[in-house]
Amino acid sequence: GRGQQGMAAQDVYMKIAGMIEEHNIRPTILIIDDKWQHTYGDCYPDPERWPDMRAFTDEMHRRGIHTLLWFRLWGGEGLPEDEVMPGGGIPYNSITLNYAPYADPTNEKYRARLKNLLHLLLSDEEGCMNCDGFKLDYSLVMPYGKTAKSSGGQYGAEMTKRLYKLIYETAKEIKPDALINASPCHPYFAEVCDMARLHDYAWDCRNETEQMRLRAKLFGAALPGV
Q1: Closest CA to 65 of 31, 33, 29, 32
Q2: How far apart are CA 131 and CA 137, in angstroms?
Q3: Per DSSP, what are the bridge partners of residue 144?
Q4: pTM surpassing 0.90?
Q5: pLDDT of 2-40, one tens digit each?
Q6: CA–CA gap between residue 5 and residue 217 (Å, rounded)
């Protein structure tokens, strides 16, 4: 009865890790998915769901498993008004969804906040979470239209690239072998992505294998070496 987001909790993931071990499955990566955060903007582990994320990541490392965190791009939930930007929602399945407020990656206050958050999540220093990278998601769920105004004047692909670049370069400074998993199928983003994800598929469609093979070819052409 927890719902999907309620399942992103330490007790659930410890149970999953136990089941993996019992069945002699040996993954090298475990992704903590949506929503481990207290809010999407502050990106601090929810204290009720994750009372000790550091203990979890250290235990996973002991088992030979790297821990990635699902990360919601543009997440403005919980951020102060002077770090977000306006903008319309995205058209999705013919329904307009409004995800405002949006974090503004051109805003110096938010950029400083994000750097500090990445240090908290990736560093092995005392008091930090010692995670190993991020699954970047919701890249397309960004502010758009005439109402979208960033403090730095950027928009669209350029603003998206600036956000990716900030996360990628900061993560590598903190932990050089941090893994950045994302799904931008375009060579402009090859330098800020280590591992490409072919992304979601509507399960009521009929040709999943064919679609994923085609996506793999496109990603391979657009992102050589990723």
Answers
A1: 29
A2: 17
A3: 88
A4: yes
A5: 777 788 999 999 999 999 999 999 999 999 999 999 999
A6: 32
Q: Which two tokens stand for residue 134?
A: 């991020």
> Count H helices, E strands: the chain?
6, 9
**Confidence at residue 204, expressed as pLDDT on a 0 to 100 scale:** 79
Nearest partner of 97 among 131, 132, 142, 55, judged by Cα: 142
- Say which residues have a Cβ less than 8 Å from residue 173's Cβ, sequence separation at least 6: none
Indicate the helix (H) or strand (E) that contains 199.
Answer: none
Query: In one letter, which amino acid is 150?
Result: S
74 neighbors 87 (Cβ within 8 angstroms): no
Alpha-carbon gap, residue 213 to 54, rounded angstroms: 37
pLDDT at 97 over 70: no
Residue labelled with tokens 């009372």: 51
Token pair 């919601």 in the structure block, residue: 72
Decide if 140 contacts 163 (C-beta within 8 A): no
The residue type at 192: V
pLDDT tens for each residue of 121-138? 999 999 999 999 999 999
Helix axes 10-22, 53-62, angle to 10 degrees: 10
Tell me: cis bond preceding 35? Omega within 30 of 0 counts.
yes
Helices 156-174 and 108-122 cross at an angle (nearest 10°) of 40
